[in-house]
Design brief:
Elements: H1 2-24, H2 31-49, H3 57-78, H4 81-88, H5 91-101, H6 104-109, H7 112-127, H8 131-136, H9 139-161, H10 172-195, H11 205-247, H12 277-289
Helix pairs in contact: 1-2, 1-4, 2-3, 3-9, 3-11, 4-5, 7-9, 7-10, 10-11
């Protein structure tokens, strides 16, 4: 456990050092991303190192699961570590890292339905098979299960938010659908644990109920936070599209001559609505001063 805590702390320090390097050379890197990564590291370390032995066993385990698998991953993803690595690494390692990030296997893993399936299938395998009971007596297996929870949470959040460079960025519909499906499956699993514990375990009924509450309502809070972030991305994308549409040049065409009317009095015969009046009047005045006829 000490080695894991040190690895997490060193990773956070490496992130801060790389961000500081970018700022020194004049690149913009918001401090809120550093804060998000450091907060995620603090949540991960606290979840792993806290004295959960004084709690009911399954409730303590579920609180650890909530911290390392659901709260810490979104904080890490908000820091955009892949983008930071691509901007801070030297040219050679950067090309190698970019080729890995944009490879076909990576694109398949971060496709939202696949990432959601990996995340939810891992949870159901832990709590609806004898895997949890076996991991209780094998420290190496327990460490492997915890690492899977962290990795699957990171993969799922990375696929849903899609903040870092991807080979093919999925649209908002598959990302939102994957998030809703994962939230529903997570809630069903939490409700099932309320009635029956994991196979091969003998937790008290009160412990099972409290752990299921932690899993259910904690998952809802994290799911709502992800939905808010995804909705903010959609709103910003629609706003950018609207601005681009407004800035696009408009074609002013008139297939037939317009009839003269009182509303068009004073305008040239070939006036087309949509052209600024100031430009038309200016050109007419110039033509009159030259003694010609404006057409």
């Amino acid at each position: 456990m000490t080695a894991v805590v040190l690895a997490v702390a060193m990773s956070c320090l490496g992130y801060v050092a790389a961000a500081r390097q970018l700022r020194r050379r004049g690149d913009r890197w918001p401090h809120r991303r550093d804060a998000a990564v450091c907060t995620g590291g603090a949540v991960l370390i606290t979840s792993l190192a806290a004295p959960w032995a004084t709690w009911p066993p399954f409730t303590g385990h579920m609180t650890t699961h909530l911290g390392i698998g659901m709260i810490a991953p979104p904080l890490f993803v908000l820091g955009r570590p892949v983008t930071l690595a691509l901007r801070a690494l030297p040219v050679g390692p950067r090309r190698l890292f970019l080729s890995c990030v944009r490879s076909r296997p990576a694109a398949l893993l971060v496709w939202p339905p696949v990432a959601a399936l990996v995340h939810i299938a891992g949870l159901w395998a832990v709590y609806r098979t004898p895997l949890m009971a076996a991991a209780h007596h094998r420290p190496w297996l327990h460490t492997l299960v915890s690492a899977h929870l962290v990795a699957s949470g990171l993969l799922f959040t990375f696929a849903v938010l899609a903040l870092d460079p991807l080979r093919h960025r999925a649209g908002f519909t598959p990302r939102g659908g994957a998030m809703l499906a994962a939230s529903a499956a997570h809630g069903i699993l939490a409700k099932s644990l309320y009635a029956t514990g994991p196979p091969g375990t003998s937790f008290a009924a009160a412990d099972l109920r409290m752990a299921s509450y932690v899993m259910y309502y904690g998952g809802d809070v994290v799911g709502i936070a992800l939905a808010v972030l995804l909705g903010h991305q959609w709103y910003a994308a629609e706003g950018r599209a609207l601005v681009r549409a407004r800035r696009a040049p408009r074609a002013h065409t008139c297939p037939v001559p317009l009839p003269r009317s009182d509303s068009l009095a004073g305008y040239p015969a070939n006036f087309v609505p949509g052209i600024r009046r100031s430009h038309v009047v200016r050109d007419s005045h110039r033509a009159q001063r030259r003694g010609g006829t404006h057409r």
